[in-house]
Structure formats: C-alpha cells, structure tokens
Amino acid sequence: MAYAYPATANPVSIIGPHFCVPHPVELAVIRNVKTITHGDFVVTDNNGYILFKVKDQSVEDQIRNNTKEDVCDFKVKGSWSKKSCVIYVGETSTIVAQMHEKHTVQNVLGGKDEFMVTVNPNIDYAFIVALIVALDGIHAAAMQAGQTSAGASAAAVV
To answer: Is the pTM of this model over 0.70?
Structure first.
C-alpha cells in the first residue's frame, strides 16, 4: 500500500544526492530472522531489484547534521515490533518516511521478517535504510536487555 505525501521543497541529502529522487520510493526491507548474527538485511525496490545488502550490522557513529544536539534531526514514532513507524524531520510534523508490515506465507515459513518503507520525494532513501538498520539494532539490544516494552511504542531520535 503506497502512501502519498507532498515532496519537500529541497532535497534532504545525507548519504548522497543520488539517493534523492523526485518521486516516492517504495522499499521492501527483508531481515533474515534465522541467522545467528542479528542484522542481515536485503533492501529491494518494487521490482525486486536489490538496492542494498547489510551484513553483520554495526552502528558505532550517529549521523548528525545538528552539531549542537539541542534538537533531534529526525524523530521516529510508532511501534517497532509491529513495523508501523513514521519518520519525521526533527520536531516537526513533516513526514519523510513510513514503515508498514508485509506478511506473506513465504516470509513466515522462510524465517524472514519483511516490511515496506515508503520514502517521500527528495528524501535520501539510503539514509532512511541506515536509520532503520540502526533502529533494528537498538530494538534488538533492548530486547536482549529484557526491555520487552521497547517495541511497544518506539520514539527514537537521531
């Protein structure tokens, strides 16, 4: 299901301007849940073309444009465990991307966790993928630490 949001006036490029396109980008994010290490992802477009592969995730640095860090650059609200999150620009109501779950019999039987991400026009979709991988790592660490409510209502800031 595609969501329609207005394009931002200026491209928001964090990783690279070639990842900012003038139309919405629908991404399928597939995580192999049967792996021993957490974080093996494949990201495809609507046609099944592989755009990114992430193996053995390791998030050591946070991507920040805001060096004062007095306000967040991006805000994520929703339920991580239900793969139902909205990513906003800072403390505004401007939506840059939205996650929604995708259940298929093949994914359940194959041990894969798949969800869709709609990235708004002129937003760096590679950055959105990096943010999702980082959030997955944060969620996994919280779950290992016994914080089972971490996925119930995620509100993460970067």
So the answer is: yes
